[in-house]
């Protein structure tokens, strides 16, 4: 079964650092913007810049939500698969730090 066609605005990634240890990307989302479905090849840490709510579209059509609080970070293991969508009505931003020594 294929995923349905999406017509959302894309989130904007800005690469801030990329060296032998880490890749740091700031992600900016307008209301309703999405990353597109992807798989994380490395463990990563997310540091929210703004408060907001994410809709996480997961494999198999499942969904989840995550409430972000500016400055309150969280970590995930390599292998996570999802599409990340700004579920709120205001712009949302976070910084993603991928840890190159923890591939998956």
From TrEMBL:
<dbReference type="Pfam" id="PF07883">
    <property type="entry name" value="Cupin_2"/>
</dbReference>
<dbReference type="InterPro" id="IPR013096">
    <property type="entry name" value="Cupin_2"/>
</dbReference>
<dbReference type="InterPro" id="IPR014710">
    <property type="entry name" value="RmlC-like_jellyroll"/>
</dbReference>
<feature type="domain" description="Cupin type-2">
    <location>
        <begin position="26"/>
        <end position="97"/>
    </location>
</feature>
<dbReference type="InterPro" id="IPR011051">
    <property type="entry name" value="RmlC_Cupin_sf"/>
</dbReference>
<protein>
    <submittedName>
        <fullName>Cupin domain-containing protein</fullName>
    </submittedName>
</protein>
